[in-house]
Amino acid sequence: EVQLLESGGGLVQPGGSLRLSCAASGFTFGNYAMSWVRQAPGMGLEWISSISVGGGPTFYADSVKGRFTISRDDSRNTLFLEMINLRGDDAAIYYCAKALTNQFRGLLDSWGQGTLVTVSS
Amino acid sequence: EIVMTQSPATLSVSPGERATLSCRASQSVSNTLAWYQQKPGQAPRLLIHGASTRATGIPARFSGSGSGTEFTLTISSLQSEDLAVYSCQHYYMWPPTFGQGTKVEI
């Protein structure tokens, strides 16, 4: 069974930084593209970043480009999201998700339960 | 970026009735369209991909149709456990955008 467990969320001041992690199990992590998707309170889903197999091409939403960095450690079956210069509109639940196939890296077939990021002074 | 627009925002359906949800893309996405179900307090779950292919373990009462810019998710006989927000997403190009969701009320 695929399991994705996010961690690292919490309360951060505007301008601050956080590093999110996603521990994966139940599948061969290194064989799949991975993504982060967020959901602000009461709002819809927003894709923010994806990383290809082997750490290859990475992709970012314009809203986070230059501030967020996605990475992966296949030896530890872990996905990361480094976030700097956080703003109020970055407050959300952040989900880690696995691609169904590597042909379509944005198609997400398994999701974690999410980690909450709150940005407030 | 491609804008995904869903209608209606809220749909009230009685158990056993058919529910029809719509999703429109601002430009053609071919059949690279997915539907996700998100129950209160839970993570999204993939229901449909390729516009009409049910994901693993998804009941047959869920079906998807459409191509290009117009898509439909149909729940043939609504069950109480289908109370959720349903979101469409294209994965035709970067960024893969989501619709704002349709809330299905029982």
List keywords for this structure.
heterodimer; A: 121 residues; mainly beta; 7-stranded mixed β-sheet; 4-stranded antiparallel β-sheet; 11 strands; globular; B: 106 residues; 6-stranded mixed β-sheet
**Discrete helix count of chain A:** 0
The gross shape of chain B turns out to be: globular
For the biggest β-sheet of chain B, the strand order reads: 2-10-9-4-5-6
DSSP strand count of chain A: 11
Rounded to the nearest angstrom, the radius of gyration of chain A is: 13 Å
Instruction: Give the distance, in angstroms, between the N- and C-terminal Cα atoms of chain B.
Output: 34 Å
> Counting H and I runs of at least 4 residues, what is the number of helices of chain B?
0
Share of helix of chain A, binned: under 10%
Element pattern of chain B in H and E: EEEEEEEEEE
Sheet having the most strands of chain A = 7 strands, mixed
Question: How many beta-strand elements of chain B?
Answer: 10
| Low-confidence residue ranges of chain A | none
Walkthrough of the structure:
With 121 residues, chain A is mostly beta strands. Chain A has no helices and eleven strands. In chain A, strands 2, 4, 5, 6, 9, 10 and 11 form a seven-stranded mixed beta sheet that branches. In chain A, a hairpin with a 6-residue loop joins strand 5 and strand 6 (58-60). The mean pLDDT of chain A is 96. Chain B contains no helices and ten strands. Chain B has strands spanning 4-7, 10-12, 19-25, 33-38, 45-49, 53-54, 62-67, 70-75, 84-90, 102-105. In chain B, the strands form two sheets. Chain B has a six-stranded mixed beta sheet with strand order 2-10-9-4-5-6, with no helix packed on it. Chain B has a four-stranded antiparallel beta sheet with strand order 1-3-8-7, with no helix packed on it. Classes of the chains: A mainly beta (121), B mainly beta (106). Chains A and B meet through strand 5 and strand 10 of A and strand 4 and strand 5 of B.
